Amino acid sequence: MLESTPTIYRARQIIAQTTRGPEPDAFAVTAEQIVATGTVAELADRYPAAEIVDFGDTVIVPGFHDAHAHLAMTAEDVLHLDLSHQAVATVDGLLAAIAREAAQTPAGQWIRGSRYDDQKTGALSRDALDKVAPDHPVLVTQVAAHWGVVNSAALARLGIDESTADPEGGSYDRFPDGRLNGRLVERALMNVALPADANVGSNIPASSPLDLQRGVVRASQAWNAAGLTSVCDALVRPDDIAMFSAVRSAGELTLRLGMLVTIEHYDKVAALGLASGFGDDWLRLIGIKMFVDGAIGGRTCLLSEPFRDGSGTPVQTTPTNKLMADVARVHDAGMRVGVHANGDAAIRIVLDAVEAAQKATPRPGLRHRIEHCSLIDDEILARMKALEMIAVPFAGYAAYHGGALNAWYGEDRVDRMFAHRSFLDAGVTVAASSDYPCGPIEPLLGLQSLVTRAGADDGVVVGEKQRISAAEALRVFTLESAEACGDAGRKGRIEPGYLADFVVLDDNPLTADPAGISSIGVRATYVGGRAVYTA
């Protein structure tokens, strides 16, 4: 059979991460796959009709793979206010943005904003929101997405008053005098902002399906521009699957998507007989998502010892007996779980659940994930290795939070946080996660953070013992993330048989000044041999 005519790509340097000898000078692509590597002369001789795309003085690396981000959530967020510290700087700036939105929004309609950072921007309360938007229900989501602040109009719309009992796994925070301060923590926020049933009353309304599809396209284009070619959306509902499918049907899907479906919707997945790996190279089911605790940046993670500065409140969002039952049920069906657990106490609960499930129903090769897996120790490492579990910690949190991590957790614990060095040394598969919108999306900033462990704003080095090399960081963002998502052997190398997903960079991240990796320009991003971004 004659081979179809491929396209040949070359650059000054190709970091192929190949298993087949030295790095190639060029590679040939057809039908979304890499079919050959070698010198330009060799490939041109083999494929005389092929077009040669010469990227000149650039460096090509395999496409970046984010093993835990939130595309569906971002699709909603991009339709509303950006209240990040970069966008508003101060609380006054944040309130001014909400006031402007209120002035052009009909009274009674929701105003929403995300990525608010209380540490960098300042404290926010119900009363402050009431002053600038008294006639609109307002929700401001904190950057970790595990709590948010609402105003009085929103509390009334949601049916929450001073006598409302805290939900299990969450709370309605209060001022010192006992009055609600507008802060909805963990399940108190999730139950209204991301409910299991979007049709239940007293929820914050989602945007229309068509608007959300536009949000997916807009977010995907921004992520492609950062060099991302694959993402696992780690919090997916059936409506989100329909949304992603619609974008794909319209020919506008420019990221390969893996999905962790929330445990609340597992019955629907089980009824259809679906299993981990169902789908194709563009849209595929990875497993089922569960929660144990809260957030690192939100200071609600479940720790074995108190927060250093007393600023946090540990929260166990799912009772232990329920988690044990949920893990056992999903495991018994042969499906992978991805359990959100940040604190060391939370991680031990997950390990107990997986150990019990594997003992009751041994399933060799069914490699469960711990999402974030932020604070570890030697015992946790050994248990994870024995269970062949996968860690999916934050890649960019050292850069984003900087010295605040030391203040919240203490330097000793930060030396065991986002422990990529420890995972690699112990032989535990460790993937890359931005957790966007909770952390910065840019993979190059993630690489820099893994290599330097320095705060991008304050320069403070946090957890220096967990530094890894640039070459190791690239593997984490490619090969290790692929393994975490069931894509081993398909993604992460520029080698025949692998998908033609690659990024063209202005410089080599393996030899550049580590403090300047995030400044390397992304020249182009290709998915399946098709340009989805060009600078």
Automatic annotation (TrEMBL):
GO MF entries: hydrolase activity, acting on carbon-nitrogen (but not peptide) bonds
Pfam family, one: Amidohydro_3
CDD domains to which the protein is assigned, alphabetical: YtcJ_like
Gene3D superfamilies registered for this protein in UniProt: 3.10.310.70, Metal-dependent hydrolases, Urease, subunit C, domain 1
Domain (Amidohydrolase): residue spans on this chain: 51-533
Cross-referenced InterPro entries: Amidohydro_3, Metal-dep_hydrolase_composite, Metal_Hydrolase, YtcJ-like
SUPFAM superfamilies, A to Z: Composite domain of metallo-dependent hydrolases, Metallo-dependent hydrolases
Identification of the protein by name: Amidohydrolase 3 domain-containing protein
Lineage: Bacteria, Bacillati, Actinomycetota, Actinomycetes, Geodermatophilales
